[in-house]
Amino acid sequence: MEIAMAVIPMFGTFYLLRGKTALTAAGSCYPNYRGRPVPRSGGLILYFAFLLAGALRLLGGGEGLLEAALLLYLAGGFTLLGLVDDFWGDSRHKGFGGHFRLFLRKGEISTGLLKALFGGVLALTAAAPLQEGPAALLVGGGVIALAANTVNSLDLRPGRAVKFFLPASLAVIALSGERGAALLLLPFLAALLAYMPFEMQETVMLGDSGANVLGGALGFAFIAYSPFPWQVGALFLLLAFQAFCELFSFSRLVQKNPFLRFLDDLGRVFKGENENER
Length: 278
What we know:
Layout: H1 2-17, H2 20-26, E1 29-31, E2 37-39, H3 42-60, H4 65-88, H5 95-106, H6 111-127, H7 134-154, H8 160-176, H9 179-200, H10 207-225, H11 228-247, H12 250-256, H13 258-265
Helix pairs in contact: 1-3, 1-9, 3-4, 3-9, 3-10, 4-6, 4-10, 6-7, 7-8, 7-10, 7-11, 8-9, 8-10, 9-10, 12-13
C-alpha cells in the first residue's frame, strides 16, 4: 500500500506536468518574481495526484481512515479557495494585514480576505473530529490555518515553499513518531519529487492553491498525531512568523543572509539579486 501511495502521485504528477501546452491550458499564466509568465496550475496538478493516492488509501481500509478522509476534505477545500485567489485575486494586497486593512479602510472584500475567513472555517471543521473541547479545537484549527498561510507566504521564489515543506514534513513525522503521520504526508512528498524540477526550471508555479494545501497538510498531520502542548507551541511559533512577515520582507532577509541565499538559489535556473523583493 505504501509503495502505491508513493508511486501513483509521483508518476501522476510527472505525467500531468510533462507537457507545457497542457500546463498552460490547465491554468492561466501569471508573471513570476522576475516578470516571466508561468502557468499557475501546479497546485491543481498536485491535488489531482494526491486525490488518486487518497482514494487508494480509503479503498484499501486499515487504520487512520478518518484522518485520511479529513485531509482529502481539507486539501480539496484549500485547493478551491486557492484557485479563486489565483485566478481572480488582487495581487496588490499581501498577507492578512493587507486584506484586513483594505476592508477596514475602503470596505472592500478581497478574495484574499474571503480565503482567510473560509480557510479558517475549513481548518476548524477539519480539526473538529480530532480535537476535544473548544480550546483544543481553536488551537488545532489555528495551527492548520496558519501553517497553510505560512507556506503560502514563502511561495515567492521557485522552490522556496517546497524546500520548506520537505524538511518540515520529515520533522512532523519524526516528532509525532506515528506511522499515521507518515502515511498522510507520503503522497505529497512523492508528488513533490516529480514536481520540484519543473518549478525550478520556471515552467510551473504552485500558486495559492498548491502552497495552501501543502501548509494545510503539514498543520493537519501535526495536530492529528502530536500532543496538545506541542500544538500550542506550534501555534505560537506560527503566529510569530506571521507577525514577522507583516513587518518585514522575508525575501530581503534571504538575500542578506549568505546561508539562506545559498539554500534559496540551490537548484534554481536563474540566480542572482536582480529581483523585485517582496
